[in-house]
């Protein structure tokens, strides 16, 4: 194990000792004393069995595991539309090994791609807490000995894990659906978006390009938060090995799901290979997720999600840990928006089995995890395939394309490209793996906004035709739910293409598609929490320095100290946003995961 990786792991273990101990005590008590199927009253059991006829006798006999399926199916979200038949098939596959399966509950699964730039996006981050609560409700019946989580996209996987970890005595496997086949290349799609932003093409051409890119069932093919989720589940050992990026509708996809059901039935408390989720997700697994994130140039959203997942398991990870890991972990993948290839190209070049094998052999990942697949993480360095009619795994071999995937001995960059920025504006994060080196330092006058739509209007009016640091505040979790500001990418990219020095500074999120424009995001404290980002005025010189890790307003210190904080209008209503007022009020800071439910629970 690389000394720097081990040092961060030890730091997290030491910091988490009390909270992790309390968590392990909780799940042990739950295992011993929680409501469970054999102890339920007859009327309770009758209610639980009333919805099934084929499995009722098996359930009454209590002779095998009953698997609770928590599904995020809907057919508005392409990644989750593939789950339509999964429960039906999983019940059949459970019977093959003497188990049963029931749909324990559904969780919401909103699509950030649909709500991006509109009021519904202000529900996005808190949908994660809602999903966690929904997962807890689904598993609260005490009728399941294991859980299968069907979820893929941005807030869904973190939310499922946060909820399931509070039932950490149950063995749990996450089951992905896979990415859609490649359509219009992401680079070509981005080019049309920029042409539209410049007024060089119309809405009809833009819509046609978008439909060609997002054209069928399956996960979007760029390497954003959804696909980063799947990478992380592999690095943590919570999938069947190599399941992340196999396309829907294939024999291999089906056999991996079947194998997951069979495996789940074998790792329950009644067997000799008990693998509860709360023990699988330990400090080493969290570090592995962070290392995978950095080594592959994954989504900045996980600077929020990973701390929240960890907290649900009694583990405390902060941005300093991420910064230290980033300095030690090489970047070995280039997938759009950090490269030209999509996740299908990444999979064809070797995918996660190549990444895991390389990082294990290089000493960057912890091998000794309690994985759901059995053994340790070594199995996740092998690629699944169908040989004859059987599912098997084999060595992925060398990279199939070194413009996409490289060995750790010849990385694209010696570090992972995520950094902490600190200064008189506060504490923020930046992802530089897709940013040209000459743009890592930007010094320019500020233009301050409180709404992303006002930025778009200023761009259209030609008011940003200069070197500029666009500051968008009152975008934090307490203000408006911390929506992604991804719609700003095309206009800021256009300004940068015109030769201007451009950067974004915000207490909001950018997205898993953070790209070529330097963005200081998740500024903390946020403006509504008396953060100094609220002191910035139009014309202040702002210096963003990703080389030295600083973010400052170049204002006389005495004047800066004396300045009043801006007051934002944060009253929201419509699109159901008023129903989430409690979440906005209770949300904690971005570095802790921006979660209302974890904060309220004292976790």
TrEMBL record:
Residue ranges of domain Dihydroxy-acid/6-phosphogluconate dehydratase C-terminal in the record: 404-594
One Pfam family cited in the UniProt record for this chain: ILVD_EDD_N
Annotated residues for binding of [4Fe-4S] cluster: 153, 220
PROSITE patterns found in the cross-reference section: ILVD_EDD_1, ILVD_EDD_2
Keyword Metal-binding assigned: yes
EC class (word): lyase
Alphabetic keyword roster: 4Fe-4S, Carbohydrate metabolism, Gluconate utilization, Iron, Iron-sulfur, Lyase, Metal-binding
Transmembrane segments: none
Homology family: Belongs to the IlvD/Edd family.
NCBIfam families with a match to the protein in the record: edd
Name under which the protein is recorded: Phosphogluconate dehydratase
Organism name: Sphingomonas abaci
The encoding gene: edd
